[in-house]
Write a structure and sequence with these properties.
The protein has 392 residues and is α/β, with parallel strands linked by helices. It folds into 2 domains: 6-48 and 97-163 and 250-316, 3-Layer(bba) Sandwich (FAD/NAD(P)-binding domain); 70-91 and 165-249 and 320-382, D-Amino Acid Oxidase, Chain A, domain 2 (2-Layer Sandwich), CATH 3.30.9. Helices cover 31% and strands 24% of the residues. Strands 1, 2, 8, 9, 10, 11, 17 and 18 form an 8-stranded mixed β-sheet that branches. α1 packs parallel to α6 (279-299). The chain starts with 5 loop residues before the first strand and ends in a 10-residue tail after the last helix. Bound molecules: flavin-adenine dinucleotide. Flavin-adenine dinucleotide (FAD) binds next to α1, β12, β16 and α6.
Length: 392
């Protein structure tokens, strides 16, 4: 042990989706774990919409009361014509995101990890096989960087860094009327959201309204809201919060590890370049990284980076699709394409891929859902306040 320093098996930088899940797993495996977080608490200044795809909810079991199940996607063309997509059995969970992060922090602490808040990682150096942090003065056998898209850990150890980003802007509203709560509302528009999408997400308590654009454009949320003002009554709703953030869009960074140092989550570029979703990958690779680190430190298992390198996605196809999206096809083309069969099939694949759903109409699906157990019935009825709209 380096003299006068508190020694940990693993130090994790960042107490968000990736860092907290890694901390919980590592602590449950018997490692002595510390997490450094620059913010005053987990869940402070959230920068994400926090929607979980079903696969994320299958990685980590989340308390029901922190989420809201949304079954479908309503996809709008620039002229605001729309089509509804869903697949029986599939769902998205909108979340009380700050509370979800607080819950993950409690879980990590319950497993035995120590979380240090207001503790910003700035620099570290190697001391034999150990890693010494400059401040706070701690020593670790292994360091995990879960410190987001612009990782300081990556910088300190000369690891790969994210180069391409989407830029997101979001506002949260209470009592926003006009929103059919059964759907995530996604808007394709090359003028308002070049390179990505705008969205409305009905959460458990608020509706999130946002958009993201490629990094050569500037997001303008007011313009999007003016465009959709005839559908959603922003004027009568209460604005609760605004936020912004960057989303890595270039795929995994390289290298993502050095001896006894490893990146996970956004720091590692583990975000789908196509959809911008990163929470599922943060959950999955945080657990896998912590398991591999534990095997390495406790059982002389292979270096964790070797284990993870064989499992990490390359996103080759999704990176190609990102290039196509960055070209931002003309709105007239998008208007013409949206309701065509190939576009429907493509959109269905993007949102509901790998789910071999039974063919049925949304109306039949909802009817059958309400016939299930009472708890699901109440959930379904809460989600069915708006009149049903036939699928085209
Ligand atoms: C506007 C927007 C909307 C999004 N919506 C979705 C969505 O709906 N669904 C989805 O799956 N993904 C979404 N994403 C992506 C998703 O938010 C990220 O992929 C996810 O947050 C990654 O988690 P993480 O733990 O790797 O990093 P982060 O959530 O970025 O957390 C990094 C943590 O590290 C801390 N930190 C940073 N530097 C230091 C330092 N030097 N010292 C100590 N602590 C530090 C930060 O304070 C933070 O707590 C969205 C992103 C944005 C910007």
């Amino acid at each position: 042990m380096t003299k006068g320093r508190e020694q940990y098996d693993v130090i994790i930088v960042g107490a968000s989706f990736a860092g907290l899940v890694a901390a919980r797993t590592a602590a449950m495996r018997g490692l002595k774990v510390a997490v450094l977080e620059a913010k005053p608490e987990a869940g402070a200044r959230v920068h994400t919409t926090g929607i979980l795809v079903k696969e994320a909810a299958e990685e980590i079991d989340i308390p029901h009361h922190l989420t809201r199940r949304v079954h479908g996607v309503r996809l709008y063309a620039p002229n605001l014509n729309s089509m509804d997509l869903f697949a029986p059995g599939y769902f998205f969970l909108t979340t009380r995101t700050a509370d979800l992060l607080r819950w993950l922090a409690c879980e990590a602490e319950r497993a035995g990890a120590r979380i240090l808040y207001n503790a910003r990682f700035r620099a570290a150096g190697r001391q034999g096989a150990n890693i010494d942090l400059a401040e706070p003065t701690l020593t670790a056998r292994y360091l995990i960087g879960a410190d987001g898209a612009r990782s300081r850990v990556a910088h300190a150890f000369g690891l790969g860094r994210n180069q391409r980003f989407l830029i997101g802007l979001e506002a949260e509203y209470e009592q926003l009327s006009g929103v059919d709560p059964r759907f995530l509302h996604c808007f394709i528009d090359s003028r308002l959201a070049p390179g990505y999408l705008a969205w409305l997400a009905p959460g458990p308590c608020v509706t999130q309204v946002g958009l993201a654009v490629h990094d050569k454009a500037k997001p303008d949320l007011a313009k999007f809201q003016a465009h959709t003002d005839a559908i959603f009554d922003y004027g009568s709703a209460r604005l609760v919060e605004r936020r912004s953030g960057v989303i890595p869009a270039g795929g995994p960074v390289s290298p993502f590890a050095a001896p006894n140092v490893l990146l996970i989550g956004d720091a590692a570029g583990l975000v789908s370049p196509m959809t911008g979703g990163g929470i599922r990958l943060a959950f999955h690779f945080a657990r896998r990284a912590a398991q591999a680190v534990a095997d390495h430190l406790q059982q002389l298992g292979p270096p964790p980076e070797v284990v993870l390198a064989s499992e990490m996605p390359s996103f080759r196809l999704k990176r190609l699709m990102r290039r196509a999206l960055d070209l931002a096809p003309a709105n007239s083309l998008l208007n013409a394409a949206l309701t065509t069969a190939p576009m429907r099939a493509f959109a269905q694949h993007v949102y509901f891929h790998r789910r071999n759903a039974t063919a049925m109409s949304f109306a039949e699906f909802e009817k059958r859902l309400t016939e299930l157990t009472p708890s699901i019935k109440s959930n379904a009825s809460a989600e069915s306040q708006a009149p049903l709209r036939p699928l085209p």
